[in-house]
Each structure stands twice: as structure tokens, then as C-alpha cells.
Amino acid sequence: MPLPRWIAVGAPAVLVSLSLLSGPLTGPAETEVRAEGTITTGSAPSPALGEEIAYNVYVPAGYERGADRHPVLYLLHGRGDTMQAWTRVKTVLDDMIAAKRIPPVIAVMPDAPWSERGSWYVDSRYTGDGSPGRPVETALTRDLVAHVDATYRTAPIRQARLVGGYSMGGAGALRFALAHQDLFGAAAVLSPAVYTPLPPSDSSARDHGAFGDGEDTFADGVYRDLNYPALLPELDPDLPVRLFVAVGDDEYANRDPADARHDLDFESAALYNAARRSPAISAQLRVLDGGHDWTVWTPAFEQAMADLGPGLSVTPPAGLPAPLHGTEGTDWAGGVAAHADGSLTIGYAAGGPVNGQEHQGRLDAVVTRAGGWTRQFGTEADERLYGVAALPDGGVLAAGYTKGDLDGKHAGNAADDAFVARLDAAGDIRWITQFGAPDAADRLYGLTAAPDGGAYVTGYTRGALDGPNQGDKDAILARLTPAGELSWVRQYGGPGEDKAYGVAVSGSALHVTGSATAAMPGTTPLGGLDAWIAAYTADGARTWAATAGGAGDDRFTAVAVTTTGLAVATGASDGDALTVAYTGRGKQRWTHTLATPSADEGAAVAALPGGEVEVVGYTRGLAGVQAGGADVLTLRLDARGGQLAAAQFGTARDDAVDPFAEANLYAMATPSGQVAVTGLTYGAVGDAPGNGDVFLATVDPATGLPG
């Protein structure tokens, strides 16, 4: 019989460890010895129980010599088992930590001997003879957690705690995660013995008093009150729970056809499908080959840790600053401008009155000088802003689209028209220019100020503004004079649907970015939706164009020109955040991709000193400390496209992205060297209702987080 790889003796302060090589050295080269964690035993006082809670604890390699804090796993065993059951995952933890698949974690494995080891990890109301129920849930979630935080180098925040379990322990882990959202941010629920609406007649959940009441060992009402269907409607979406459910495909099959609904593979699927519909839960389900044993639970635990482990953090997520801008209705972000005096102006679309101003109807355009004035304007139809730009005199330009008669010269208009407005430093509207093809949709999605105080705008048209339309939609680029006169319009498109989203000016050169479903003139189609960039002269002559991405769906949503003269475009390529730099002649200088297992997209680029850029977008994955849902993503890239920093921040709900999975986010470098970011959030910040409001944050490029 081989010697054990580790031996545990005594209380947490007593560590006895043996590390054995897997075989003899066979040559002059040294065999690398993998660093291993250590398991010891301990006990926690429990006022709730009036006795000690025994546990095993795994600490990662180097814990004794370090000073760092660590996330904690709480691992619950199944009915009839002991705290020794979970020690078999030590090798999994050692391997995953060594490979940096998960951070170094502490794992606490409590013993649950109560109710003849069928406690189901709940506070029992059973008072019958023999084995009366105990307040197990209170003891483990209150007393044990407090003891662990006081004894080990942990972080007492929910983002640093994961609860897991198998069988009865899986039911307990689910219960703890849903009933104690303030404690746990994630749960690994393996072959959970959860039954709805009630356990089958042969379930041991009925036998030991865990769900009893008084002299009755089982009470239907108690079970229903404690089970997950009663918890799901009460969950707080601002305390998101990440849930990983796994089960074997060879689970015990109930012999009674009436109880087939209670086979655990069926119950696990039912749990997953109920949980994934909760706004407070992000859920995963895996069905593995095997039955109700460790042939399933060991690989399932590894998969759960691979999914949930990287999201554990001893640092709480960075949030959004208050106050938010908007109304009780639906609001959308519409741009940010940074002025020479350090002030900021944001634009947005509002579904109600702002600061006591009159709401014209549906969505109005709103321009707000932070800490100063607000100007709301619109028609009875929709107005959306998609950009604001600072002017040297302290005024701003704003651009977007209207479905009404915004300038007083388009009576009866029923289609989307492009518009540009100029406001002075006091917020008074100097002029509004509305234009477009009659009875065809025209929208503006990008704006930049021209050197003379005029504007360059970009978007799309379904009509013919500069020759015949080449397809479903054509991209447009237009020039307006400082007085608001439409100087020229250029239409650019192929046989498909073409849109332009971003525009930047540098000297006499213009750069425009967008997406196309088919070949654009002067480009090579790559397949799917293509990201494209085109360069123009100041008088609207196209000089070059290029596509980027791959065979999937790609788009460029924004562009900026660096201090070294590169045009840097950002967007998405097949679900990853793609940023590409081009020379003045259209040659790719560098490419950067940020890829997580979830959706990522760049939405704005801010030019920084020394040729660096700050890319701002959104991620549903992990680029820093995850707040929940879609987060604001920040990437600092050097002049060669090397990644200097990556971070994310936001609320527990979706930020920077709209319900149609499109980014709603803008950014602009400020004179102080920071980056102003504005976007849509569905989170509750301060007194905001959390139904879709607009945030404004100032980000430090060194950290990528709000300062």
C-alpha cells in the first residue's frame, strides 16, 4: 500500500506534512517537486449548537510563509459521510493552483454529524426523542464563517467565498448560497439532493427530522419553505450568485414511475432551468458520465472550480460613482466631452423630464454640463444622442437622430433623420441642422469636432444622399460648417448592410470605422460581419479602406488618433475585444485582442501621451475583479499595442451594454490625463431606481478604475 501524500494531525496550529517524490531520480537532471498544500484539522466554537464544529482545512502551499489573504471554499459532505470525504480533492486543488487556473484558496470541510448525519444543513424544528434537530444552518453560516475569518488570512467579503457540496451537501450548498447572498458569491452544486415540490417517499430527507416540526420528523410546509423554489423569487439582483450545477447521467432511477421526476439528473436540470431565469443568478449545468459517486464529483469539482474559481477575489469590485443621470423612465448614454478648463459635458436620451425641464415626448435629447446647466430638447417622437464634442469656446456639439421635426423645417417627418446641434458655453442652443433622405432612415452614430469649430459626423442612410444607395444601408460621412450648414455628404457602401460608428480627425485626415455584411469598395470581405476602417481627406475624398477580423462577426465601433499619428480602431471580433492600429497609409501597425470565455467588446478609444491609448468597452468575463453582469472594461495599451493594464468595474447588473447586446458607452481623454467615461447602467447607485440610467466616471489610466 503506498504511503499517503500528506498526514494531518491535531488543531490548525499542528502541521505534519510528508511530500514524496513519485519515483527515483534517474539522471543528472533534477526532478521538479510540485508545491503542495496542507490539510489539518480544527474546531470552531458554536454558540448556536452549544458545542464545537469539527473541520478539516486545506491551506495552499506557502501559506505559512506568506501574508496574502485568500478566498475560502466551504465544502459540505453528503448524508452519512464525514469531513474526511472532501479531502480527496486536495490533489485537484494543488494542481489547479500550481497551474494558476484558480487563485490560492483555503478550503474548509466541516463535519456535520447531527440528525444522524442527515441534517440537510438546515435549522431543524424537530423536537422528537432520540435525535432532536439542531440549528445547523445558523451554526455553519454564522459561527463557522466567523471563526474561519478570525483564524485564517481570509477576506470577509462575499466575493471571496464559495460554498460547494455533493448530494445532501449539494442541497446545503444551494441553500446557503441562496439564503445567504451576503456571505457567498458562488456555489458548486454537485448531484444535489433537491426535490420539488416534495421529496419522494423513499428519500432520507423524510427520515431524520431535518425538515421536521415538533414531534413530526417531516412536515411538507417546512420543506417547501426551505427549498429553492421559495428562495428564488426573494433573491436580491444586486448580490449576484454564480451557480455551477453538475450531475451524472447514471443517477439512481426511481423504480416508481410516479417518482421519475425525482431522479437527480432530472431534478438538477429543473434546478438549472429555474435558477437561470433569476436576474440574481448566472448558472451553468454539466452532465457527466457516471453515477452518484466520486467518479462524477471529482471531475465535476474541477470543472466547477475552473468556472467559478477565477472569479473569487479578496478585493471587492469597483463600483460606479454617484449620482447617476436620468429619469424614472428609460434613458440611454449619448456621449462625453472634455473641456480645456477640466469640466465635462455628457449627452443622453431621457424618457422623462430632467432637472425640472419640459419633457417633449418619448425620448428627448439631453445635454448636461457636470455641476452646471442642463438642456433638454426634442419632439413628440424619439431623439437619441450618439456623441457630444467640445468646442474651443466652451460650447459643445451634439449629434444623433430624430423621428420628428426637430429643426422646425421637417413638418410631417416620420422617418429617422440625422441631426447635429450646437450649444454655447451657457447651454443655449445656437443651431440645429436636420438632414436625411425623405421617407428613408438616416442615423448618426459618430461625431467629432472639426478644427474650425464645425463638425464631422458619421452613421448610415437607407436613402440616396450622395448617389444611389448600394445596398440595404450605406455608411455616410458628412461635414458641417461652424454655422451648421451641411457642406458635403459622402456615401460609402456595398451590396449589404453597412454602418459607420466612429470618426476621428487629425490635421487634414479623417478616419471612419464601422461594419459591413458584404464587400465594401476597396476592401476584401472576410466573412460574416466585417469590421472596416476608411480614411478621407478634409474635403471628403476617400484615400484607403481596409477590413479586419476573421470569418465570424466583427465590427469597429470607435476610432482615435494617437499622439504618434496612428489611427486606433476598437470593437469586437467574434465575441472578443479587438483593437487595431493603422498607419496614415492604411497599413496595420499592431493588433491587440482581449478574449475571455464570455462576450467582450471595445466601444471607445482615448488617446494618451506617448502614443498610448485607453480602450473602454464592456466584458461579461473576467479581466479584473468582476462586479456582475456586463462590466465596464478598461484596457491601457502602449504605443506598440502591448497591454499595460486591464480592469473592470460596475454594478451587479448590466453596465455599458444595452438589452440588444450593443455597447452603450463613450470615453474621452481629459486635459489632466485621466479618461472620462459615460455609459448606460441598469444597476442601482445612490437613489437611482436602476431601470436604465447614465453614469459618468473619471478613470485613472494607471489602474483603469474610477478615481
From TrEMBL:
GO MF annotations, alphabetized: acyltransferase activity, transferring groups other than amino-acyl groups
Name of this chain's protein: Esterase
Pfam families, per database record: Esterase (PF00756), SBBP (PF06739)
Signal peptide: 1-22
Superkingdom as given in the UniProt entry: Bacteria
Keywords attached to this entry: Signal
Keyword Signal: yes
